[in-house]
Amino acid sequence: MNCGEFAVQTVMHCHVHLIPRRKGDLDEPKGGVRGVIAGKASYLSEPPTSK
């Protein structure tokens, strides 16, 4: 759930995403909600880039 200042909201409200799941919908289900969006789950494990 994303709420308030830490969710970078300009209009304060509760914000929830509901993503339906089905058995077998992912080859390797792991992690939180970002795991169901292809290419999103592993971003924290990537080393930071220097500019």
UniProtKB/TrEMBL annotation:
HIT domain: residues covered: 1-28
Family matches, as Gene3D superfamilies: HIT-like
Short motif Histidine triad motif, span: 13-17
Molecular function terms, GO-annotated: catalytic activity
Top-level taxon of origin: Bacteria
Xref: Pfam families: HIT (PF01230)
Residue ranges of coiled coil: none
Signal peptide start-end: none
Protein name: HIT domain-containing protein
Organism phylogeny: Bacteria, Pseudomonadati, Pseudomonadota, Alphaproteobacteria, Hyphomicrobiales
